[in-house]
Amino acid sequence: MGSPASLRRALALLAVGATALTAGTVAVPAVGTATAAPSHDLAGVHVRPASFGHHNVQARPTPLTTTQCVSQIGIHCYSPLQYREAYNLNPLYGQGVTGKGRTIVIVDSFGSPTIQHDLEVFDKQWGIPDTNVEVVKWGNVPVFDPKNPDHTGWAGETTLDVEYAHAVAPDAHIILVETGVAETEGTTGLPEMMDAEKSLIKQGRGDVISQSFGATENTFPGFDKGDFKSINDLRYAFKAAAEHNVTVLASSGDNGATDAKENGTDLYPFKVNSWPSSDPLVTSVGGTQLTLDDSGKRTADDKVWHDQYGAGGGGVSGVFERPLYQTGVANVTGNHRGTPDISMSAAVDGGAWTYESYDPTAVGWHLTGGTSEAAPIFSGVVALADQLAGYRLGQINWRMYGLSLLPSQWSGIKDVKEGDNGWNDVTGYNAAPGYDLASGLGTIDATKFVHAIAGR
């Protein structure tokens, strides 16, 4: 998920009509070609941020419908309006629950110089009210270079994060924090991100923080010796969030039950987990695959994201003990923290439309998938719940695991019972009734979930 190494978030997808590479190295077929067979050989692959590759491919002047994507590209594609239907968000908007008065903080290296313009084009396409994105530059953020793949990769991630947090909570204020050091594997880039988050938290400037980045626990110094100080020393932002009742989210990863090594080019041949998703003070957001028609209605049940381009992250932490809120699922997690907690749309075969113009050679509509799509979508849901409750809900894991004990029609939590998150020849975890290490508690019906978690 990080800059050259570990942004297990989204897989760079295609600009429709051309071929691009995903973070999993699988080429998305060009129009008229057959879908390639899965390729799990990731040796030598240089993992890039979410949208890496977009600047090298042709963009679409207008987005396609799902039917057109399936017939022309061989994958599903979705708009924010389809997500609103699929997650039953529209009744909330009808009730005036739009995120008004709440603030979503999004943290990305480098950011995007065209984010305000791109969001406005995105909004106009889908009839969503505009908002002014507040950009906070943290540290020495370099001048954006559209020829620098790290810059364009992070700009793609930034675009995805902002556009889909806003699409779900259209009246929430968005603060985009741009840091000057790319997050990779190990601790690189993370101190700057945590410093920025803590500063905003102490200023009272965020209700929910969305993080579409992470690094494999095993890549932190000392991990192989059982010394977790390098991770624990980075937790100060999350401790501050807990003190100020700020909800913190993190993508669970895009490489299934495994993830990237420190060199950023290989994946571990065994199960691993990533931080900050694995932190007990964070809500880990995993990935599902939705099958929707052109209006956003389901034509099949949601399943764990696992297509030929990647799989939703999940598993057991090698660092953190099982938190009290997971006591009821100890039979699944054992003595350690399990991830994810909840899951939202992330499949590449089910990618989200974004509008991007930061690279002048690839201006237009692109598709992106990955759990870095799931996290900002869920950040919008949290902003809606905060508005309805009338206060910050803070650490929502306690509430979610409690709600999961109730019938779905009351809790709004919908169990995901199909699929697994195996990847790169590493056997993953299977979806199962109740909590599992592939989808967490499942996914949501947003109207029921927001009312239930807000207690109103």
Radius of gyration: 19 Å
The poorly predicted ranges are: 1-57
Largest sheet data: 8 strands, mixed
Structural class: alpha/beta
- Write down the overall geometry: globular
**Helix count, DSSP H or I runs of 4 or more residues:** 13
Q: Report how far apart the termini are.
A: 37 Å
Q: Provide mean pLDDT, rounded.
A: 88
Q: Strand percentage, roughly?
A: 15-25%
Task: Give descriptors for this structure.
single chain, 456 residues, alpha/beta, four-stranded mixed β-sheet, 13 helices, disordered N terminus
Descriptive notes:
By secondary structure, the protein is α/β, with parallel strands linked by helices. The chain has 13 helices and 20 strands. The strands form 6 sheets. Strands 3, 4, 5, 6, 8, 10, 11 and 16 form an 8-stranded mixed beta sheet that branches. The chain has a 4-stranded mixed beta sheet with strand order 1-18-17-2. Strands 7-9 form a two-stranded antiparallel ribbon. Strand 4, helix 5 (149-168) and strand 5 form a beta-alpha-beta unit. The two termini are 37 Å apart.
Summarize this entry quickly.
This protein is an alpha/beta fold and 456 residues long.
